[in-house]
Every structure is written in structure tokens, then in C-alpha cells.
Amino acid sequence: MSGIPSNERRRPDRAALVIAPVLFAIAALIWWDAGRLAEMSNYSRIGPATVPHVVAIGLALLAVWTGFEAWRGDFPEREPIEVKPVVFIVAGLAGQMLLLKTAGFSIATGALFALTAFGFGRRKLWISLPIGIAFSFVVYIIFGRFLQLSLPAGPLEHLFF
């Protein structure tokens, strides 16, 4: 047969067997939504629905591939998940969403940067918070001022602009 003793063969990966249909469902949703875009513009074969259709096809292929590999058990063993970094990153995202309207883009995104850095092991929040705010302020200047995109302004942005 395959030369691998039966006691060393891996079982199907249950997590990947769940991920495969989810990927396929997302691909179907994108395909359906892109079909609505195609109805709006009939004048050209290449239009606003072309790229979403390509993305949907790619996701469907990945879903089939993931299901096949999961059934064969070919995925490598996963390392245990460390919950603490995930909690800090999610807390940073939640903090950014909560602070965005009141504190503005730079401060909210700087807090996200600091909490993400803390989750990845950078324990000096008093250094990473101002660095994150400074980087976010530069991003605000580039996108909000130079490219004229609408980003929420807070006290820091109002101080300079």
C-alpha cells in the first residue's frame, strides 16, 4: 500500500474539514454578490464583477484543496494556541473601534498598535503607545491630507490641522 504502518497514519483533520465548507460558503456568497454587480453593467465582458468572480473561484478551489488535504490528514500538527496574545490583539481592535470617533484615528490606532505589540511580547507600553500614535499620525497625514480620504479626526489631528 503506501508503506506507512497503519498505526502511524493520521486521521482526518476535523478543524480543516470544518474550514473547507466555510471557505466554499464564502466563495458562493462572493459569487452571488458579484452576479448582482454583473446585472448592473451589461456593456462589457470585463466589469466590476470580474475580480470578485476570480476571487470566488480561487476560494472554491482552496476549499476543495483544503477538504482533500484534511481528509488525507496531510496537515502538519498544529502548535497549541496561546490565548493571551489573541486576547490583547482583540482588545486592541475593540479599543480602536471604541476610541475611533472620540479620540480620533491616530490615538485609536496607536492604542491598537501598542496592545498588539504587547500581545507579541513587547512589554513596554510606555514606549510602544507613543510610537504607535506617531506612526498612525503619519498614516493620517498621508491618507487624510494628501489623498483626501475621510478619516476620523480627534484632538491630536485638530491640534495640527
Automatic annotation (TrEMBL):
Indicate whether Phosphoprotein appears among the record's keywords. no
Q: A Pfam family name for this chain?
A: TctB
Transmembrane keyword on record: yes
Q: Which domain of life is it from?
A: Bacteria
Residue intervals of the DUF1468 domain:
18-152
Transmembrane feature ranges:
15-34, 46-68, 88-118, 125-143
Q: Sorted alphabetically, which keywords does the UniProt record give?
A: Membrane, Transmembrane, Transmembrane helix
The protein's name is C4-dicarboxylate ABC transporter
Source organism per UniProt: Shinella yambaruensis
